[in-house]
TrEMBL record:
<dbReference type="InterPro" id="IPR014757">
    <property type="entry name" value="Tscrpt_reg_IclR_C"/>
</dbReference>
<dbReference type="GO" id="GO:0003677">
    <property type="term" value="F:DNA binding"/>
</dbReference>
<dbReference type="InterPro" id="IPR029016">
    <property type="entry name" value="GAF-like_dom_sf"/>
</dbReference>
<protein>
    <submittedName>
        <fullName>IclR family transcriptional regulator</fullName>
    </submittedName>
</protein>
<dbReference type="Pfam" id="PF09339">
    <property type="entry name" value="HTH_IclR"/>
</dbReference>
<dbReference type="Pfam" id="PF01614">
    <property type="entry name" value="IclR_C"/>
</dbReference>
<dbReference type="InterPro" id="IPR000253">
    <property type="entry name" value="FHA_dom"/>
</dbReference>
<feature type="domain" description="IclR-ED">
    <location>
        <begin position="70"/>
        <end position="248"/>
    </location>
</feature>
<keyword id="KW-0804">Transcription</keyword>
<dbReference type="GO" id="GO:0045892">
    <property type="term" value="P:negative regulation of DNA-templated transcription"/>
</dbReference>
<feature type="domain" description="FHA">
    <location>
        <begin position="73"/>
        <end position="131"/>
    </location>
</feature>
<dbReference type="InterPro" id="IPR005471">
    <property type="entry name" value="Tscrpt_reg_IclR_N"/>
</dbReference>
<dbReference type="InterPro" id="IPR050707">
    <property type="entry name" value="HTH_MetabolicPath_Reg"/>
</dbReference>
<keyword id="KW-0238">DNA-binding</keyword>
<dbReference type="GO" id="GO:0003700">
    <property type="term" value="F:DNA-binding transcription factor activity"/>
</dbReference>
<keyword id="KW-0805">Transcription regulation</keyword>
<feature type="domain" description="HTH iclR-type">
    <location>
        <begin position="8"/>
        <end position="69"/>
    </location>
</feature>
Amino acid sequence: MANSRSGDTMTSRIVRIISAFDETRPSLPVAALARRANLPLSTTHRLVAELAGHGLLQRDRSGEIRLGLRLWELASRSSAALDLKSVAMPFMEDLQAVVRQHTQLSVLQDDEVLFIERLSSRGSVLNHAKVAGRLPLHVSSSGMVLMAHSPHHVQAAFLARAEQSSGIDRPAAEDLRRQWAHMRQSGFASLPGTVVAETTGIAVPIFDASGSAAAAIGVVVPTGSENPAATVPALMTAARGISRGLGAKPEVCFPIQ
């Protein structure tokens, strides 16, 4: 129920406050928080006090506001992401021991790729993917391979939204459709230089018990040293193991391979 003159609900205002923090600004003065959340300063002061009283926000020594440990505690009690991570971690560690660059686990969320976990070696190449961070799905190998294994109506809906929000025109949309078809056929996505010019992302899907592509496991390596003949089978082996751990039947894991 809306309970403000602007028509937004209490829940939406609380979500805007919590979502205002990111890796660049893990703590904020109340005035900056109000601007980021697009809320009146008085409303922000009141909601911050209430949320801090429940441990969902906290003040640091400088007086700035940051997310509270209570949020982490609640999220850690029951989370599909944590279940996925616990199943995937042994396979990610085995893969990382071979790749020795970056190995990452991700899901699709709101037309973006949300990274659940990342393993990196010292001296590895630059990687903009961060745990709990996001990237546009069409620039990420993980996002592209997950969209490639999504139903056609999901692909069409994404392209319609992208056309309005980011200016993807018809030729670009058709190019994405061709890429998705190829990725679905091959079982993997390889994108050189889309996020960082000197790196290549390679990813494969992970399937759940329903047979849907629920997540992706990928690597980021220096462009020119991808070695798909070795890297893709290693990724697929890891993905099969994770998929089985999520309850997927053997025949739904990379059925075209």
